[in-house]
Every structure is written in structure tokens, then in C-alpha cells.
Amino acid sequence: MVNVGILGATGMVGQRFIELLDQHPNFNITALTASQRSAGKRYEDATTWYLDNKMPESVRDIVVVDTDPSQVDDLDIVFSALPSDTAAKVEPEFARSHIVASNASAMRMEDDVPLVIPEVNPEYLDLIEVQQKNRGWDGFIVTNPNCSTIALTLTLKPLYDRFDIKRVYVSTMQAVSGAGYNGVPSMAIVDNLVPFIGEEEEKIETETLHLLGDLEDGVVTPASFGVSASCHRVAVVDGHTEAVFIEMEDPADVEEIESTMADFTGLPQKLDLYSAPKNPVVVRSEENRPQPRMDRNESGGMSVVVGRVRQDVAFNNSFRYVLVGHNTIRGAAGASILNAELINEIL
Amino acid sequence: MVNVGILGATGMVGQRFIELLDQHPNFNITALTASQRSAGKRYEDATTWYLDNKMPESVRDIVVVDTDPSQVDDLDIVFSALPSDTAAKVEPEFARSHIVASNASAMRMEDDVPLVIPEVNPEYLDLIEVQQKNRGWDGFIVTNPNCSTIALTLTLKPLYDRFDIKRVYVSTMQAVSGAGYNGVPSMAIVDNLVPFIGEEEEKIETETLHLLGDLEDGVVTPASFGVSASCHRVAVVDGHTEAVFIEMEDPADVEEIESTMADFTGLPQKLDLYSAPKNPVVVRSEENRPQPRMDRNESGGMSVVVGRVRQDVAFNNSFRYVLVGHNTIRGAAGASILNAELINEIL
Amino acid sequence: MVNVGILGATGMVGQRFIELLDQHPNFNITALTASQRSAGKRYEDATTWYLDNKMPESVRDIVVVDTDPSQVDDLDIVFSALPSDTAAKVEPEFARSHIVASNASAMRMEDDVPLVIPEVNPEYLDLIEVQQKNRGWDGFIVTNPNCSTIALTLTLKPLYDRFDIKRVYVSTMQAVSGAGYNGVPSMAIVDNLVPFIGEEEEKIETETLHLLGDLEDGVVTPASFGVSASCHRVAVVDGHTEAVFIEMEDPADVEEIESTMADFTGLPQKLDLYSAPKNPVVVRSEENRPQPRMDRNESGGMSVVVGRVRQDVAFNNSFRYVLVGHNTIRGAAGASILNAELINEIL
Amino acid sequence: MVNVGILGATGMVGQRFIELLDQHPNFNITALTASQRSAGKRYEDATTWYLDNKMPESVRDIVVVDTDPSQVDDLDIVFSALPSDTAAKVEPEFARSHIVASNASAMRMEDDVPLVIPEVNPEYLDLIEVQQKNRGWDGFIVTNPNCSTIALTLTLKPLYDRFDIKRVYVSTMQAVSGAGYNGVPSMAIVDNLVPFIGEEEEKIETETLHLLGDLEDGVVTPASFGVSASCHRVAVVDGHTEAVFIEMEDPADVEEIESTMADFTGLPQKLDLYSAPKNPVVVRSEENRPQPRMDRNESGGMSVVVGRVRQDVAFNNSFRYVLVGHNTIRGAAGASILNAELINEIL
Q1: Which residues 288-317 of C are in CB contact (within 8 Å) with A?
Q2: CA–CA gap between residue B274 and residue B302 (Å, rounded)
Q3: CA dihedral over C196, D233, C242, B181, signed as positive or negative
Q4: Residues of B in contact with C189 (CB under 8 A)
């Protein structure tokens, strides 16, 4: 068993880490950190638990410590659910001697930090060596993308491998849990929606191309097609829905698009990693799916569900589809855990 | 005063007609029709009133009649809020001797029936003459587009007049009122959304190009750029939100796009029609607007509110914006009324 | 293994029966019935599956039959998720030769039909003998109460056994799933609530007293305190919340009330029935619990969660509390299954 | 015209004050105060406007000042929408030389401060003289009750005058706007409700009896029946719904209860005050009304709408009904304004 800690363990993503790691066959939670206000308390006392499933017995009595490397020991991996500004300061400190699998955005676009979805670009883990050399660390940082980006990129990867993508437009309808428990006031979401999520569009546009790029000589060259996003918050608890429009250079038909996504597997499936879904992308044929409440928990929340693949009327090389992905499982905690499982297996 | 009737007066759009016509300076409601089940009852007894404002006193005692031309007389204009299949049968019967301003989709794409947004293509009213000749009617039918199409096209029209549009992608987040009172079960919309609205995408794609086309020798040639829509139902009572992506042939800048929309006016503004908003498109600068609950009632629900106009990162001839339009006012009853006001003024 | 069938298997409660019975150690689903429209189809094809968990593999290929005893054989128990009017006709036919565990309201208040919550009044099962003699049936019907009543009565039973209850007032905030998938239009529930549920108040008032009554010489004498209910539908998917006010003859203190409920167990716990929760009533101490989304799944949805037990300011023999119970698990399918488990164990 | 100021003008209740006062025939807004962060800015720049109606032109350019009596002059009346802790400090300072009509709870239960609903207990304004003598002020403070209390008490007052009330139980379903814009996270309210509102139950229980009490020799003796409340937050934007159970000493019938409430008028109606609704209580007969979205705007939000008046099955002196009142109009800003109108008329 590998001893793991969770940085920022009391927040919404922190709680998902705990839920997903509780019965994990390889990882054993031995440390939980939070802000100084919570440090010194039992986890149960420090936390307002938000998830539908109950707080696991195994963590209730763990004493929360300050988010500081000196407060933990005997840890192999730390999972980071820290806010971006804290992550920027603290993750490098942990990386001196720990493996950091981070969901925070702070370090994602650093040249020598792998931004990885295991099914998409596991080879970027080669940057670890560069990173350790550059920075003189014994540990390292590996990051996963933003929640909306992960779901989108899992569906684009098989298409990108087979077809020549020219432009991608994506309009998101994102769940309120993505903003944290207090992130979206109910006044903003009852009989309403909010057509703006800070920095979300930029992340989707940048990270997607980065993930589909090429790593050569320690440098990532992003993919070169256009990505344009419009992001919206809607009255859904969990599960991001995305309407995707894709222009390709050459014609294809709907069945090809569907089967290309449905048949997609990657290294986690090959290695049979514990959190790897059998199918990263599940394609449904009903005319009114995917729906977030119905489809977010597909494969324990680790699969993206796609539906309504259809060709444009006027152009046979343009396609549309709708996807749903669980934003705090596949889009956050589950993403970091899958990264850690891959690292644990291959390094 | 012009005597008007409302066909399908007890439903949701029928109620909006009544609300909007109650204090109208030129139109006077003298007949209300509904299905046989309601015929013979006072309107108040026949109707479950759904709107926030109270049922106007003026219609409470009107006895509802069957939707049949023989049941009404002394009517100049009939507004149709009928479902499509009923409209297909009944509207032509009314058109023998009445002006029919219809919100139904049944006759919209008939070659000789004007599909009109007064600010966009008032010249299509020339088809009335063709229609009357073709069909031997003394009256005629004029239709307005689908709710989502109206809002979209009002924003595209000024851009289309000035720039060379190549492709438009639109992803809608539509209010539940658009499906009628019983149209969307709450089980489908609480903590959920539905990524499908029957025939909606087809209507947007077809009607938008038709509205922006050219009428020559009695024949409409639709505009020729590509339109691709993805339609979704969300937990909002009234007000459709649309995320629009637009590719143009040539570069522009955000200020040009914004001012082109903000400065747009058409014939209804010139003629100072009663229901014409001062600005068909209102452009807001806040980063998180438009929002349906906040913006749907702009200019009494007759303006479309646009925000978040922004250029694509990679391509300076690609733009995005978000719009909100009131689906049962500007998108339905108000659209038919504005058509009737224009006809009343110019014919 | 006992072979069981589900009458009305395609609806919302029917689906819960399937979900709960799928892994059941004693019951084996061998027949599914529905209306003639579905008969002859595979269950997967006949059903729009509404639950968050996926349709179990085991039932996908079962061919749905008409709801008629001649269509099934080799069945020991049939679970009824039929609407009341169908149940009134069909359940007696099934009861000639089958055990019918029914969630329908049709037969609940018949003199010789046991209305049972296993923790509350298992002795009412003695009515089975009376029923079989009266009606000449080889099988029999056992019913469970209405969803709101079950949750309320589980909390009242321990109090009733220990204290002298004078009056109970209950105000419910009920989930939309209780009305069936199409029962509540979203127009009625977004930014709104509906303060009326047909016959619900009557059921709570009658059934609660019946359940807490005495069976003597084959006749149930209901409990004699007053119950007064006000029922409301709110924008929650699953889980009924009830605000309970209780007047007792004598003083008590909050701790006594809490411990009396928390310590309550009944025959299902003694017999260790498969679906019996360890604690039928779970008492929480947080000031803002229970909440439906957080607490409806307690003990797999079979426990009622109580919180906010507090004394009235002016009267020390008056108390208030709030409860949450899962309306389609403990309040419907799970209730019938627990009845069947009890019958299977003791008869 | 009377010059008025609004303390705490940028918040939700402050905005309602502005909306309601904008076209007021007697009151003229000349000062707006807020926290130091906003002081010095134009109101339009200092405020995120939350209401459906647009910010009135008349206030956009008013420069917001610090909430301090030295910052304003030429004011006759100040309306207070301050949070309770700020109100406790600042309102007495303003009261030295101004009339303060406050919606804050800070001073409500002070012995010499009138807590008034104009239709219910206008005679409590006699306390003003006591207050001025006690405190040596030239001005004074008048308060209105908590939002839920106002709606409840308006319905109880006519019943209390005619019948002998023994006990009142009330279960509220309150709108999220009552907690301020950021008060209720959407994570707490989507597919959920929260059965707790801090100090709300205590306010209802205390203020209701205080309002229905007797003022003699400068001392209020509260009414002596029992009031017991259970308060819950639900997914509604505006409009509190309350389920009321009332035990009386003697029998009555439903028609008496209904007509007693429907016929109720008070001093504001007699004096024909500008904001006074024709009927403080509107009684509806539909089985499923009142509903918050449908009924909150009755008489511009100044009437309480009652429905479902029904007798208890077992006891003919026990009744139930449901009420809806607009929490930020009749329950807050409108209440303070009506108080000020009464003072302006009679003092």
C-alpha cells in the first residue's frame, strides 16, 4: 500500500478524493491537510460533508494538519485539491520530496510540468525527468486539466487520431459544484443561468490543444486546430454538459464518429488501472441523452457519455454531439487519482 | 380600433397574447377560441391562468368559442396560438376572410406565406398578394418564426448586412415555458437538463436562412451561409439563452460587432409601432450578462439582450456572444402582434 | 429462492422494485408486467429508465407481460406498483393464488387487508387469515402505507409507545418523484411550489392512526389522537421532508424524545431481515439537518432521518422535529419488499 | 414632497426600497448610503442590481455616501435596510434628528420602539412619544416585523379579533431572496431544501404575539396564545409560503374563517395610503393556490394571499390554511414604507 495525503481535504474536491480513495486497493490515506483554521481538529469536526454518500469511517478520526510539508511524513503521494493561489506556493514545496498529483490549475501550463489525461497523453510523463532536473526536486508535480477540458478532450482524442480536425466550438452547461460549495448563490441559479465562468473558456482553449499536442525533446507543441468555448453555469448539482461542434477537413459519417469514440481505449485500460473505466467514452443512441442526472455516474463517474452525434445539414464534414462528464470525479479528484495510478504502475 | 380574435387562447402563448393586447391602443379583443372542451365557457372558467400578472378583467367574461371561422364575426385580425397540426387545418379556413397573424409553425415554410420579423424582412409581406392570388383568399396568413430563431436572427441581421458571414453555430439553453405548461416534467429538469427539443434545431437552421434571404419575383432565396444548432432545455421559466459562434470572411473588432448590433433599428422603429422596442438588440457590457431572469423583460420582453461579445483567440474573424430573448413575448405572441401592427400600418 | 413478479414494472416505483430486488438474496425476479402497450416487449425496450443507477442486466431481456394472473406462473410473491384504479381490479385476481405485497392505495383500508410497517404493527398480519377466510383466496394481499405516512409513523411509533400523544400537526415538503415521472410539470415547480397533493392529507391522517391502532378479534381500532396534515410539493427529486409538531399529555425533554426515536427497533431488526435498516430512525444533531439530498439515502434509503428536535417555548409538552424519508424506497418499493421479507420469514 | 434616504441602499432590500419609492407620490429619494467601500461612487456604479425591473433612472447618478448622519442633510425620513448589527449602532444616531423607518431586527423588541404593521397595531405608534422622552431624541425609530411574521400576522389579526385563538403552528417554505443575494448557496438548494433559518422561528414566535398584544401605559403586553414555528428554505426566488394550523377555543366554519380574512381592512385602507392594498388578505378558492410565483405579486406584492382554508377532520375548532406573502415587498421594504406613509399621514 502507498501512503497518500490530501491537500485541501475539507473542500468539495477534497471530499471526492476521500470518497474515491476510501476503498482504494493501492492507496491508503494517512494525512489530510487544510487551512490553519481546521488544523488540529479531527477531520469529522473540521468538515461539513457535502456528498450524498456518508463520510467514510476511516477518515473521521484523522487529525487535520496545516498544508505544509513539515506537517506530514511517510507520505508517498499527495493529492492536491488546493485553490490555485495556495497551490502555486505550496505544491513546489511538497514536490521537493513527494509526488504531487494536482487538480489545481496553478502549475498546469509550466513547461516542465506534465498536464496529463492517462488515456490521452501518458507520454507527457516523460517531462517528470526534465522537471526534476530543472528544479532539483526529488519529487515532482503532475497535473490534470480543468473539469470541462477533460471531458471534451477524452471525446476529441480518438477523433483527432483518425480525422483531421479543423475547428472545435464548445458551449458548456456546467454544474454548480464546480464552483465549490459557496461558489454560486442560489439567487443566481433559480429560474436563471449565468453565462460566465472566470477563466474557464481560456482553460478549455489552451489545455485542450496542449493535451493533444506533441512532446519532443522535452517541449510540448500544442495541436494547431482552433478551439472556441462559451461557458455557462446552470441549475445542476453535478455533471457538466457540453454541446460540441466540430469541423473536419474531410467528410465522415455519423457511424464512424460514434464508433471511433465508443471503441476508444488508452493506456489505463491496457494496464487495467483500478479507476480506469472500461470505456472512457460511452456513446448512447437515445435522442434525448446524455443528461447530467442520468449519465454523470456512468462507470462510477469516470466515463464521459456522448449522445446526439449528428452531421450538419449543409456540410458533411461538420458534426455535432453532446457530452456529459462528472465534473468532480472524472473532471477533478478521479482525474488526479488515475494519474497517480498510472505513475504508480509505470515509474 | 381593430377587432381581433385569439385562436388557442387558453394555452400559454394564448395567455401572452391576451396580456399584451389588453391595453393595446389599436387592437381590441372581441373573440377567444379554444378546443371544444372549453367552448361555451367564460374565459375565466375555461382557463388556468399561468402568467405572473393577473388575468385582465376585460377578457374574464368573454365566452370562448370553438376554433372555427363560423363562430366569429366582425373580426379583422386573428392571432393564432394553435398547435401546429390544428393550425394546418384551421388557419387556411380563417384566411379566406381574415388576416391571420400566426405563431404556429404549420404554414411558415409555404412558398407564398410570408415568414416575417418586422425589423428583418418586412419586404416579404409582398408575398401576401401572391398568396391571395394563388389561393383565392380575401384574407391571408402571415407567420413569425420559432422563438429561438427570432432572437438569433435579430442579432444576425445587422451583422449580415455589414459583414460577410460564413458559418454560425448556436447552442441554446431554452426555458421550459417554450414547451407549454405540461411540456417538460419536473423530473426532467430538477438537477438536470434535456439536450433535445423536437424539430427545434431544424427550425433554427431553416428559418434563419429564409429570413435573411432575398425575395425576388415572388420567390424567397434563402441566405447561403451555414447554420448549425444544438438545442437544450434548462431549469428556467421564461427566456431563452443562446451561445452564438460566428465565423466571418473578413476580420472585424469587438467594438464594431457591438455597435453594429446596438445601433440596429428597422421599419418598426421608423414607423414607431406600438410594440416596437426602441432597440431591437440591447448590448450589455457586464462580464456575466445577459441572464434570463434579469434580462428577459428588457423593453417589455421585446428586445433581445446581447453580452459577452468576444473575439476568438486564434482567428480575428471569428466571434462569440450570448443572447437572451423572451421566448413567449418577442419569441411568440409579441412577434405576431408586431407583424399585425406592421400590416395594420402599411397595408 | 422465492420467485417474484412486479406488477406495473415500467413506472417509477416499478423501477425501484427492480433496483432493490436485483441483488436480493431471497427473491428472484421472474416476471414483469405492464400495460398492454408494453406487453410482448423486452423490458429494456418497453421502459424509459429513470433511476440514477443503471437498469440491472438481469431484467433487460425479460419479456414484459400483461398485468393478468393468467400471464404468469411459478410465482410466489407479486409486488404491486400499480396505480390505484388498476390495483383495485387486478390485485384481488392475483390474490386468489399469490401473495400480493402492494404499494397501491386501493386495498389499504379494507377491513381484512393488513396495512403494515414491519417495525410498527407486524401483528396486523394476523388479518391474513381473516382475509383468506372472508374471500376464499389461497393467496392474500398485504399493503404498505402512503410514502409520507410511513416516514411519519416510523418516528411516531416509539413516541406513542412511551408518551401519551394528544395532537400531531405535520407539514410536508414532498419530492416530485412521488407523483410519477410526468406528474408535476416543471412550470409548476421552477421558482415555485404547489401547496396541494390530491388525497395525500387524508391518507396521512387516516393511515397513521390505523397503523398505531389495536387489532383485536380481527378488527383494527385506530389510535385516537388527532392528526392534521398540510401537504406541499417542492423542487426536490427524491426524499420527502416533513415538519412535525407534536403535543403530548405530559412533559418530556428533548433528550428523551431523541433517544426514544434513536433507540427504536422492531421485529425486522430482531429477525435481521435483509432490507431492515439497523436503525429505522436515525437522529442527527446538526442544526440544519435533515436535508433531502443529503439524508434520503441513509441506510440505503430505508431509514428515516430526524433532526431539529426542539421543545416549544411556551409548553414543555410540545415538541417539533423535521424528518426526511426516501419516498420511493422506504416510502414505496422498499416498504413492500420489507413486508414480503417479514411474511417470507414468519409465515 | 418628503425627502427620504435609504440606509444600506445597495443590498437586496435596499433595491426594493428604491423600486417602490421611485414613483412614490409623497416621498422623494435624495440620499443613498452604503458601506465605506461604496461611498463616493454613483449608485449605478456601486450596485449590482438584482431585481427583474431595471434600476430607475432617478437614482443612477446619486452619489452613495457613508451610513452616517453627518453625511446627509435635508432628510425627513430614513429607511433602514441595514444588517442587524450595523443597525444597532447606526439607527440610534440617525434617530436623534430623523424619522427612522427600519426593516432591521435590531431595535424591534426594545420596550419603547414601536413594532408596527399598520393594519394590525397602528396604536403602537404612541410609543414614539415615550421613546423620544426616554432617549432625548428629536427623531425616532419605528420598526416593522420580520418577513414571515408580517404575512402570518396579517392573516391572524382578523381571526384574533373575532375568535379565541389557542394555539398556532406554522411551517414556512421561504424564498432564497430572504437571505440576501449571497445568503444561500445553490449547492444547498438545487434538488434540496434547508430546514433551518437562523433566529427565524424565535422571531415569528415573539413578534407575532407582540404585534397582537395590548399597549397600555406605554407598555406592550403580548398576546398570550401559543405560537410554534418550523422554518425551511426552498428553491423559490421571492415569496414566502406558510402552512398554518390554528386551534381555537370554539367551533367555527370554513366560510366564517375565509370571510373574516377576506373582509379585513385596517387604518391604511381607511386612510387610503398610497401603498395600502385594497385587501391586506386576498382569499383564493382554487384547491392548489396560493403558489409563490403566481401569487407573490398580488396588489403589487402588498397583499398576503390565502388559500386552502379547511377544517380539521377530528376537531371542528381547528383549521388549516396556506398563505403566500412577498418577502421583500410586504415582508420588508413595502412594510417600512407603509409605516412611513402612516406616520406621515397621522403625525
Answers
A1: 293-294, 297
A2: 11
A3: positive
A4: 186, 190
Residue C102 to residue C145: CA distance in whole angstroms: 9
Q: Which of C173, C289, C313 sits opposite D232 (nearest CB)?
A: C173
pLDDT for the residue A316: 84
* Confidence category of residue B240, pLDDT binned at 50, 70, 90: very high
The residues of D assigned a catalytic role are 147, 240
CB contact under 8 A, D52 and B297: yes
Interface residue of A169, A172, A309 to substitute, partner B, most B CBs within 10 Å: A169
Strands D77-80 and D2-7: parallel
B181 touches chain C (CB under 8 A): yes
pLDDT for B313 equals 82
Inter-chain residue contact C186 with B191, CB threshold 8 Å: no
Rounded to two decimals, the ipTM of the complex is 0.96
- List Cβ<8 Å contacts ≥24 apart for C120-123: C120/C153, C120/C154, C120/C157, C120/C211, C120/C212, C120/C266, C121/C211, C121/C212, C121/C213, C121/C215, C122/C266, C122/C267, C122/C342, C122/C346, C123/C215
Output the average pLDDT for chain B.
Answer: 97
Q: Which residues pair with B324 in a beta bridge?
A: B241, B305
Q: Which DSSP category does D1 fall into?
A: -
B185/C184 Cβ within 8 A: yes
SS (H, E, C) chain A: CEEEEEECCCCHHHHHHHHHHCCCCCEEEEEEEECCCCCCCEHHHHCCCCCCCCCCHHHHCCECEECCHHHCCCCCEEEECCCHHHHHHHHHHHHCCCEEEECCCCCCCCCCCCECCCCCCHHHHHHHHHHHHHHCCCCEEEECCCHHHHHHHHHHHHHHHHCCEEEEEEEEEECHHHHCCCCCEHHHCCCCCECCCCCHHHHHHHHHHHHCCEEECCEEECCCCEEEEEEEECCCCCCEEEEEEEEECCCCCHHHHHHHHHCCCCHHHHCCCCCCCCCCEEECCCCCCCCHHHHCCHHHHCCEEEEEEEECCCCCCEEEEEEEECCCHHHHHHHHHHHHHHHHHHC
Q: Residue C293: its chain A contacts at CB < 8 A?
A: 52, 237
* Phi, psi (degrees; rounded to nearest 5) at D133: -65, -50
- Chain-centre distance of CA B170, in angstroms? 17
- pLDDT interval class at D347 (50, 70, 90): confident
Q: Does B240 qualify as catalytic in the annotation?
A: yes
Q: Is B311 annotated as a binding residue?
A: no
CB proximity C191 to B under 8 Å:
yes
Compute the distance between CA of residue D74 and CA of residue C164 in angstroms, rounded to an integer.
64
Nearest CA in chain B to C178: B187
Question: Which residue is closest to D193 within chain A, CA to CA?
Answer: A186
- The model's confidence at residue D315, banded by pLDDT at 50, 70 and 90, is confident
pLDDT at B163 over 90: yes
> For B29-79, what is each residue's pLDDT tens digit?
999 999 999 999 999 999 999 898 889 999 999 999 999 999 998 899 999
Give Rg (Cα) of chain D.
20
Residue type, B284: R
Identify which of A52, A191, A294 has the shortest CB distance to residue C297.
Answer: A52
pLDDT of residue A314: 79
Domains of chain C in sequence order: 2-145+333-346 (3.40.50.720), 147-326 (3.30.360.10)
C88 in A contact zone (CB under 8 Å): no
Yes or no, beta carbons of A308 and B236 under 8 Å apart: no
Nearest by Cα to C330 from C125, C153, C173, C182:
C153
Average pLDDT (B246-255) is 95
Chain A residues closer than 8 Å to D50 by CB: 187
